Amino acid sequence: MPDRASRPGPAAFRGLAQLLALDLLLMAVLIGGMAALTALGLRLPGHLLQDLELSLPLIALIVVGAPLGEELVFRGWLSGRPGHVGASLAILAAAVLGWAALLLLPGARGAFALLALAVIGTIAAAILLWRKRRRPPMALFARHARWFYLFSALAFASVHLANFTEGNAAILLPLTLPQFLLGLILGYARVTFGLWAGILLHALHNTLFISLVLAGAG
């Protein structure tokens, strides 16, 4: 666990290019394996993308919104630095309370509560980041960095079980192997180069694969 991620620069972008190449290689192997199993008669569970119309707002959500939100939630805290961990908790708490308010309060009141909590969470995260900006990784993270790293990838993969429209977790879990491997790559990028690197790499990954989906649909 480095004390700080390296700054953006030529070396960081070369590292990201190598990680993107590794990502594409792994995904090509996995997709080829799934295609071979399908050709042999294996029926894969239904997926949300099969029934969704890929409108411009949905594509923007997949390419921009998902990488930004998922990196903040699953890897924003992975540096182990107090400011990053505190900011992630503040954003997560605001998001949970905001969605609860949206569900429990009628109409405009719920929307206003969601917006207010989002603003409060963002301000709290910014204050924590500023006040603890010079703190090194916490001792607990430094000692158990590998387990936090694996946990973030497992959590990231497990959330994607919701993308399937049928089947139970025991059957679907192996199908999240692409997300688990991607989570390992993104976690390494986040710790080594910074959160911006994980967001950029995630966005490039989603852009390439949504382009394949659009090309296939066309």
From TrEMBL:
Q: Is Transmembrane helix given among the entry's keywords?
A: yes
A single GO molecular-function term is:
endopeptidase activity
One BP term from GO? CAAX-box protein maturation
Q: Which UniProt keywords apply?
A: Hydrolase, Membrane, Metalloprotease, Protease, Transmembrane, Transmembrane helix
Residues in CAAX prenyl protease 2/Lysostaphin resistance protein A-like domain copies? 55-140, 144-207
What Pfam family is a match, any one?
Rce1-like
Indicate the transmembrane segments per the record: 20-42, 54-73, 85-105, 111-130, 146-163, 169-188, 195-217
Organism superkingdom? Bacteria
UniProt key word Transit peptide? no
Record protein name field: CPBP family intramembrane metalloprotease
Q: In which organism is this protein found?
A: Croceibacterium soli
